[in-house]
Design a protein that fits this description.
This protein is an alpha/beta fold. It has a single domain, classed as SGNH hydrolase (Rossmann fold, 3-Layer(aba) Sandwich). The chain is built from 8 helices and 7 strands; from the N terminus they run βααβαβαβαβαβαβα. It has a 5-stranded parallel beta sheet, with helices on both faces. α3 runs parallel beside α5. The longest helix has 17 residues. It is globular.
């Protein structure tokens, strides 16, 4: 049965640094297109640089325009980023939790199939700070903290969560943050297998 899938996120969902197939979401789209029995329309709604605050501004409109059967949310990496000091996160953990709960509230108006994608590993040797903006930092402690919050919220709200921690090696990261084509392939396979095992596709 054909389904509409909306995938929200930031640059990793958008497909940054995968010059072969355009990222894990596009790899999933190609897979679904070629599988007649699983065929679904998948919309990549990842926006580079987005955090949960920015996603909330467009979440309702994007969903209303497409009326999805399944909503996948891959957000939080940029929330965990801090500027100059660990005491200055882009989005505080408390605000991040509040934003996720609002995203869930909005999503539930359209579908019961809500899936969160966990945060990927990083290579701190390349992200402390990031070379293209030396005021901004990503560290493993913060990434793990925000990832744990996503997982906790999913458990409390009986939502599906796809763990990405431990999946990518440093060699799978183009710039310490964004997966290479190989890294995106690993993410695609984990998502695909999860969706099949849980009879979502």
């Amino acid at each position: 049965m054909e389904k509409i899938i909306n995938v929200f996120g930031s640059s990793i969902a958008w497909g940054a640094c995968d010059n072969e197939m355009g990222g894990w979401v596009n790899r999933l789209r190609i897979y679904l297109f070629n599988e007649d029995e699983k065929y679904s329309e998948i919309y990549n709604l990842g926006v580079s640089g987005d955090n949960s605050e920015e996603l909330l501004k467009r979440f309702s409109v994007e969903n209303e325009a497409r009326q999805p059967d399944i909503i996948m949310i891959a957000i939080g990496m940029n929330d965990s980023q801090y500027v100059n000091s660990k005491d200055n996160p882009r989005v505080s953990l408390e605000k991040f939790e509040s934003n996720l709960l609002e995203l869930i509230n909005q999503a539930k108006k359209l579908t019961k199939q809500i899936i969160f994608i966990g945060l990927t590993d990083i290579d701190e040797s390349k992200t402390m700070p990031i070379p293209w903006n030396t005021t901004k930092y990503y560290d493993k402690e913060k990434v793990n903290l925000y990832n744990a919050k996503i997982k906790e919220i999913c458990e409390k709200n009986n939502l599906k969560f796809i763990e990405m921690q431990g999946l990518l090696d440093n060699d799978d990261l183009e710039d310490g943050l964004h997966p290479t084509a190989k890294g995106h392939e690993k993410m695609f396979l984990r998502v695909k297998d999860f969706l099949i095992e849980n009879k979502i596709i």
